[in-house]
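re: the backbone from monday

yeah here it is again, tokenized this time
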């Protein structure tokens, strides 16, 4: 028996589609051990974070998106503005890959991605993803909480924001980076409170496999309660700062794509409604939920800020 708080996006295991059956079986075994451990500690929220297995806390209210859809219909403007970026993205070398951690930290550092991954506890989470363009998917990410990286980075108490940056032309001259209209490099950011929320995640894999380039390999942010453009791909730099980051899409059009970008069905994009979303794979249309259904975890971050943080 699970002794934990039922989260508002959860539905029965039967909602999962057949292609997830293999992962589910593995996750249930890992989950059973983790739940026993959680009970022994008398705690809620059984965690499987020590083993490379699924964290049973994060379940879905809908079928998992077919892998073929989630890995072939992508937004990655560095490789062009079409949804078909697979062949262009696959040309990018994923190793060596260096990550810079700097800004308001005890000690700035540059480290190889594999050295970082060795230090991080990898787990799998089922998350929903809602693009501002009104399509959505539900996929199993592998990775680790952003909070773990924040602890590893040892930010100074003066740091109030985290800024994450995608590679620029110096790292890899992706074709889209030649397009001068865009404010490259792609930068995203969040407050320290958001970055250390339990849902904020850094992904390294998808469907039990290493992340593919088109999905943001080797390291991409995953923020399931915000519009997808906040989930910056192929990260090369993480900086701690006391100034709100000037984010890529907000530089282009802050009214349509602001800093907060919390999913809100009640606030339409100037050119389309956000009330519903189209599920990749099935094309089924379903209602969109406030904070993409993750309000129980994140609504508290925006107390007193609702006017701003729920608008865009
Ligand atoms: N560097 C970079 N990160 C990015 C984007 C991008 O164009 N460049 N697109 C964003 C948008 S709009 C979405 S919806 C998601 C898409 O992630 P996916 O292709 O893995 O579904 O990536 C986000 N991260
Ligand atoms: Mo998006």
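seq for it, each position gets an aa:
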């Amino acid at each position: 028996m699970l002794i934990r708080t039922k989260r508002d996006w959860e539905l029965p295991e039967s909602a999962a589609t057949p292609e997830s059956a293999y992962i589910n079986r593995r996750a249930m075994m890992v989950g059973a051990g983790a739940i026993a451990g959680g009970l022994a500690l008398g705690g809620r929220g059984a965690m499987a974070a020590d083993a490379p297995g699924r964290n049973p806390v994060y379940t879905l209210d809908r079928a998992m998106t077919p892998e073929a859809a989630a890995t072939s219909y992508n937004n990655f403007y560095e490789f062009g503005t079409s949804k078909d970026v697979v062949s262009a993205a696959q040309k990018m070398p994923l190793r060596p890959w260096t990550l810079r951690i700097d800004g308001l930290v005890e000690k700035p550092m540059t480290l190889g991605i594999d050295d970082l991954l060795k230090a991080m506890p990898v787990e799998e989470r089922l998350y929903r993803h809602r693009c501002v363009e009104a399509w959505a998917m539900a996929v199993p990410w592998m990775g680790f909480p952003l909070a773990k990286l924040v602890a590893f980075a040892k930010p100074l108490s003066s740091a109030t924001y985290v800024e994450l940056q995608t590679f620029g032309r110096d790292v890899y001259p992706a074709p889209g980076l030649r397009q001068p209209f865009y404010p490259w490099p792609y930068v995203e950011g969040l407050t320290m409170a958001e970055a250390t929320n339990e849902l904020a995640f850094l992904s390294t894999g998808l469907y039990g496999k290493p992340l593919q380039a088109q999905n943001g390999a080797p390291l991409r942010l995953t923020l399931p309660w915000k519009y997808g453009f906040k989930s910056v791909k192929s990260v090369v730099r993480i900086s701690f700062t006391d100034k709100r980051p000037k984010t890529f899409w907000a530089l282009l059009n802050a009214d349509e794509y602001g800093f907060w970008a919390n999913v809100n069905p009640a606030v339409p994009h100037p050119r389309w409604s956000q009330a519903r979303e189209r599920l990749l794979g099935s094309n089924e249309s379903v209602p969109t939920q406030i904070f993409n259904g993750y309000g129980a975890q994140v609504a508290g971050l925006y107390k007193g800020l609702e006017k701003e943080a729920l608008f865009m």
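The longest strand covers residues 135-145. The two ends are 40 Å apart (CA to CA).
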